[in-house]
Amino acid sequence: MTTPPSFTHGSVVNEFPTALSQTTHITWTSSSLSPMDCGDAVLLSAESTSGVSGLYRFSHHGTVFYATADEKAPLKGVDWGWELAVRRLLPPRPSNCNWAHISDSVVWSYKPLKEARYVWHPKRIDIRELDPIKHLNHKVVLCRYESELVCAKIARFEHELPDIEREAQAYRIIDGHDIGPRFVGHLTENNRVMGILMKYIPDTRHGTSVDLRVCTSILGRLHELKVLLGDTNRNNFLVSADGGWAKICDFASSELNADGDKLKQEEDELLTSLEDDEFDEEDGMWDIYGQHRFTEVPRSEYRI
User: Fold this and answer.
1) How far apart are alpha carbons 75 and 69 in whole angstroms?
2) E strands within 169-297?
């Protein structure tokens, strides 16, 4: 039997027993920590490579905590991406900790989390205020907010924050130019900015080569503001049902104050991008993903 851990300098260590089926016993030496059982934690996001590493984001008692796993974590195969398998390794979380590292033991700690530094819009919206409807992809969710359909895009993990910052900067430049969706505000998690919210544009489809004229037109208007889109794959263009107009919906790869040569090259290569189906996804492939969180998890928790 492993010796129960104690609290030291903000970290709590839980050693794994040799058999995972055994009960892990933990002794808390500081009552002020108010440890909370993680059995009801909800997995929101995950990135993992079996046997190598894992990165996880959980909602728990109205807040969000993160977990990492290294190659010593007692996980096998698909367990690296399975909510129950990861969650059962977590000992109770001290209320002042937001980060767990899973190895041959688990260490709880507090980590100051980075946030998006570029904030221009006056409105900040806690993600819990959104009523999620369905995922459009792994980072974008169709939601309802104040009776409007909106699209929420978040940095699930810190390494995705630069994309959110680039998009926020681009939306500031195009504000009022009718090039993309209307920017609604900045999204927060645990009071830190880590996402953006845009108005949903209904009755559209992704661009194709037959939409070259309207896609060239909207890309040209973006270029007039010296903004390079940086990724002209056809899924980044929303085209009206009648093909009469287009909007741009993804600025994560954008570049401000781009020089003329780069802008012209992007225009010249647009047709090739619209013909390429490399980034296409099957219709409805995201319709089921995350639905249990949207319908079963209480609104007091983060669901995105």
Assistant:
1) 9
2) 183-189, 192-199, 204-206, 227-228, 237-240, 246-248, 255-256
Choose among 279, 235, 232: nearest CA to 255: 232
> In degrees, to the nearest 5, what angle opens at C-alpha 137 toward C-alphas 38 and 211?
170
Domain boundary among 81, 109, 137: 109
Give the C-alpha separation, 219 to 227, whole Å.
9
Host H or E run for residue 134: strand 131-135
Cα(32)–Cα(179) distance, rounded to whole angstroms? 52
Mean pLDDT in residue range 43-71: 96
Residue 85 has pLDDT above 50, yes or no: yes
Under 8 Å between Cβ of 227 and 258: yes
For the stretch 240-291, pLDDT in tens is 999 999 999 999 999 999 999 999 999 999 999 999 887 676 666 677 888 8
Residues 150, 68, single domain; the answer is no
- At 283, which amino acid appears? D
Q: Strand 124-126: give its sheet, edge to edge.
A: 124-126, 183-189, 192-199, 148-154, 140-145, 131-135
Beta bridge partners of 53: 49
Q: Find the domain containing 242 and state its range.
A: 114-295
Chain segment 130-144, per-residue pLDDT in tens: 999 999 988 899 999
81 residue type, one letter: G
Looking at residue 34, what is its pLDDT? 65
Q: What is the total count of domains within the chain? A: 2
